[in-house]
UniProtKB/TrEMBL annotation:
<feature type="binding site">
    <location>
        <position position="103"/>
    </location>
    <ligand>
        <name>Zn(2+)</name>
    </ligand>
</feature>
<feature type="domain" description="Galactose-1-phosphate uridyl transferase N-terminal">
    <location>
        <begin position="4"/>
        <end position="165"/>
    </location>
</feature>
<keyword id="KW-0862">Zinc</keyword>
<dbReference type="GO" id="GO:0006012">
    <property type="term" value="P:galactose metabolic process"/>
</dbReference>
<dbReference type="GO" id="GO:0008270">
    <property type="term" value="F:zinc ion binding"/>
</dbReference>
<keyword id="KW-0119">Carbohydrate metabolism</keyword>
<feature type="region of interest" description="Disordered">
    <location>
        <begin position="1"/>
        <end position="47"/>
    </location>
</feature>
<dbReference type="GO" id="GO:0008108">
    <property type="term" value="F:UDP-glucose:hexose-1-phosphate uridylyltransferase activity"/>
</dbReference>
<feature type="binding site">
    <location>
        <position position="153"/>
    </location>
    <ligand>
        <name>Zn(2+)</name>
    </ligand>
</feature>
<feature type="compositionally biased region" description="Basic and acidic residues">
    <location>
        <begin position="1"/>
        <end position="13"/>
    </location>
</feature>
<dbReference type="Pfam" id="PF01087">
    <property type="entry name" value="GalP_UDP_transf"/>
</dbReference>
<keyword id="KW-0548">Nucleotidyltransferase</keyword>
<dbReference type="InterPro" id="IPR053177">
    <property type="entry name" value="ADP-glucose_phosphorylase"/>
</dbReference>
<dbReference type="InterPro" id="IPR001937">
    <property type="entry name" value="GalP_UDPtransf1"/>
</dbReference>
<feature type="binding site">
    <location>
        <position position="35"/>
    </location>
    <ligand>
        <name>Zn(2+)</name>
    </ligand>
</feature>
<feature type="active site" description="Tele-UMP-histidine intermediate">
    <location>
        <position position="155"/>
    </location>
</feature>
<dbReference type="InterPro" id="IPR005849">
    <property type="entry name" value="GalP_Utransf_N"/>
</dbReference>
């Protein structure tokens, strides 16, 4: 079954229609029995694309194609239509990166070295996917059933998209426009403004951690590594190390203040089909975490207006406290 992009004629928004996704296992059970991501079950996953450490020994990190991809392989033919029922094939690549051989492990328990190993693995795979010059490589981690994780075994995902959806294109347009107007990166101005008020800063030790002014959910948190690179594929070792030193403690802090919440972690990055030096002028990759403690209801669906029941000025200090208690 080909996955396709359908365009909503009333909003111009794109929707991915990926029927095979419904066949996914629903296995968020806290047991490793039958888990396809556990060591010894490698034959249950699509062919391996990377393992760390490299070689034939036991792996610590392992990547392979997603068995239930949300996109079809690049070059897949599919029907295209315009008008009210506009559609085109959704193509690209979709990969899983298993972060640890341990089923019950979690990123929040990672040592700095282990977190760095995961980030290095993600960078390597992001690079490999970006080499095909898709429009975008999107990296994310779904934690907990409410965040869409269908398998409990700790893993991240990478999706290469051959077409950039309107929401992503709009983000890039704003950042490019800011650079055209000021000669500065929007994210740098934002970071400076956040440091200026200090109200929403969670930590600022190698990587700036803050909660965005217009946060859409409680405890939404940004990690901003200022390594001067526009995408994870191009991230510096120092940038990754700075995130590795901070991320596990941040996740422990979130687990503390919200009671081990489901969350989505996303890596924001620029387009993959432009020159890296050019990209770095207006774009900086960064990480954003969206805890999933709220649900979207009528107003959100009618207007796109997300209602955040808390203010980042109140939640950021809570998280800062929990995070320093959790150890940096
Ligand atoms: Zn497992
Ligand atoms: Zn951002």
């Amino acid at each position: 079954m080909i996955t396709e992009t359908r365009v909503d004629a009333e909003t111009g928004e794109w929707r991915l229609s990926a029927p095979r996704r419904a066949e996914r296992p629903d296995d968020a059970r806290p047991t490793s029995v039958g888990c396809p991501f556990c060591p010894g079950h490698e034959d249950q996953t699509p062919p391996e694309r990377m393992r760390l450490p490299a070689g034939d020994g036991p792996w610590q990190v392992r990547a392979f194609a997603n068995k239930f991809p949300i996109v079809s392989p690049a070059g897949t033919d599919g029907s295209t239509a315009t008008g009210l029922f506009s559609r085109f094939p959704a193509t690209g690549d979709h990969e899983v990166l298993v972060e640890s051989p341990e089923h019950d492990w979690d990123l929040r328990f990672a040592s700095t070295e282990k977190a760095l190993e995961v980030l290095l693995g993600l960078r390597e795979r992001a690079r490999a996917l970006a080499a095909g010059r898709p429009a975008a490589v999107v990296v994310f981690r779904n934690y907990g059933a409410a965040a869409g994780a269908s398998l409990r075994h700790p893993h991240s995902q990478l999706v290469a998209l051959d077409q950039a959806p309107p929401g992503l294109a709009a983000r890039w347009r704003l950042a490019r426009g800011h650079y055209a107007d000021t000669g500065r990166r929007l994210v740098d101005d934002l970071a400076a403004a956040e440091r200026g008020t200090g109200e929403r800063i969670v930590a600022d030790n190698g990587v700036l951690v803050y909660q965005p002014y217009a946060a859409s959910v409680p405890q939404q948190t940004v990690l901003f590594p200022d390594d001067g690179r526009g995408s994870l594929a191009d991230a510096t070792d120092d940038g990754l190390a700075a995130v590795a030193r901070t991320l596990p403690a941040l996740l422990r802090g979130l687990a503390e203040v919200l009671g081990d919440p489901a969350y989505n972690l996303v890596v924001h990055a620029g387009p993959s089909d432009v020159d890296a030096r050019e990209l770095a002028r207006w774009c900086q990759w960064h990480v954003e975490i969206f805890p999933r403690t709220t649900t979207f209801a009528g107003l959100e669906l009618a207007t796109g207006l997300l209602v955040n029941p808390s203010r980042p000025e109140e939640t950021a200090p809570e998280l800062a406290k929990a995070m320093s208690a959790a150890g940096r």
